[in-house]
Amino acid sequence: MILKEIANRRSVREFKDEPVSEEAIADIIRAGQFAPTAMSSHAVNFIVIQKQEIKEAIFKIIGQEFIRRAPVLIIPAIDTGKSILPVQDLSVATENMFLQATALGLGSVWKNLTDQWAKKVKTLLNIPNNFLIINILPFGRPAKPPVPHGDADFDIRKIHYENW
Is 79 helix (H, G, I), strand (E, B) or coil? Predict the structure, then answer.
């Protein structure tokens, strides 16, 4: 049941020093590619970063340790000439990727990119100007198991039927 992955999916910023298999990376990207997109544009591409020197260069832009320590970074990028809702399309792809990573026993976190950071990362990675990036997704085995969501996290008072 997918509720298991949803409940277990928590932000992870500390990773074990273990590589992520190519098969796991492919499965995570497959989940992102299978995400729905507005008007079925399927305009999302994925940049996979495993080389330490590139992670270090991105760390110098963003300044957060988990960027340099994660075994793999994936950056979803979308062609703004093909997508009518690029932020939404990237967000749905990201969530699918998070859930697949959780199913594989991997941790992840959404690292938001400011416009300034995005511009520098795009330059560093030679991402074409017509592509939008909004986040960087680190993946790896969690250094410690994240605490899953439980029944106490479910708030029935936030459900409204027919009107507020």
Answer: strand
Compute the distance between CA of residue 108 and CA of residue 95 in angstroms, rounded to an integer. 10
Res 77: pLDDT: 98
Distance CA 19, CA 113 (A): 25
Q: Measured between alpha carbons, how far is 48 from 153 in angstroms, rounded to an integer?
A: 33
| 91-141 pLDDT per residue, tens | 999 999 999 999 999 999 999 999 999 999 999 999 999 999 999 999 999
* Residue 72 tokens, joined: 């793999």
Residue 20 Rama label (left phi>0; alpha psi -120 to 50; beta): beta
Q: What is the DSSP letter of 127?
A: -
Distances (CA, A) of 50 to 112, 141, 160: 19, 14, 45
Give Cβ neighbours of residue 72 (< 8 Å, ≥ 6 apart): 19, 20, 25, 48, 49, 50, 138, 139, 140
Do residues 92 and 37 touch, judged by C-beta distance below 8 A?
Answer: yes
The 10s digit of each residue's pLDDT in 31-65 is 999 999 999 999 999 999 999 999 999 999 999 99
